[in-house]
Amino acid sequence: MASLKQAARRIIEEVYGAGRVEVLDELCHPSYVSHDPLTGGADLAGVKAYVRLLHACFPNLEVRILAVYAEGDTVIIRWHMEGNLARRLLGVEPRGQHVTLEGITLSEFEDGRLVEDTSEWDTFGYLRQLGVVRPLAEASEEGERSGASLA
Asked: Fewer beta carbons within 10 Å, N or C terminal of the chain?
């Protein structure tokens, strides 16, 4: 179990934190699939592309592991990421927006290799920090001024 916890930590720290996508080849089963609110279901190539994009957009990305839990072939990691937007992302021009988010990743292993993981994090908060969406209170106030209704 300790080796599974270490493997899950390496994915967060080395892959997402340092951008070392080649670590995925070492730790993941060839049929690996990742589920994420932003990317949906992604295979190994899709996750590598996402990590490269993440590091291109947030070159000062910092990643911290907050907690690790393991039971059998399942590892759950609670993590924190933050950085400043330095490249256009989701139609948003970089203005140095500082983005902070926390989430959890549930990783399923078979024979010591990662076969599937599911991440849950505050995607709406992420989009709000980038300026893609506005908090409901702001939209509600604007609607009241224009006579529109959110209902």
From this structure: C
Nearest to 64 by CA among 44, 40, 83, 85: 83
Question: What is the token pair recorded at 67?
Answer: 């907690």
Instruction: Please classify residue 109 by burial: count the beta carbons closer than 10 Å to its beta carbon, then call 0-12 exposed, 13-18 middle and 19+ buried.
Output: buried
Nearest to 10 by CA among 117, 100, 83: 117
Could you give all domains of the chain from N- to C-terminal order, each with its CATH number?
Answer: 2-146 (3.10.450.50)
Of 147, 73, 144, the C-alpha closest to 114 is 73
Predicted TM-score (pTM) of the model is 0.85
Tens of pLDDT along the chain (151 residues)? 569 999 999 999 999 999 999 999 999 999 999 999 988 999 999 999 999 999 999 999 999 999 999 999 999 999 999 999 999 988 889 998 899 999 999 999 999 999 999 999 998 899 899 888 887 777 666 655 655 554 4
Residue 16's Cα: distance from chain center in Å?
8
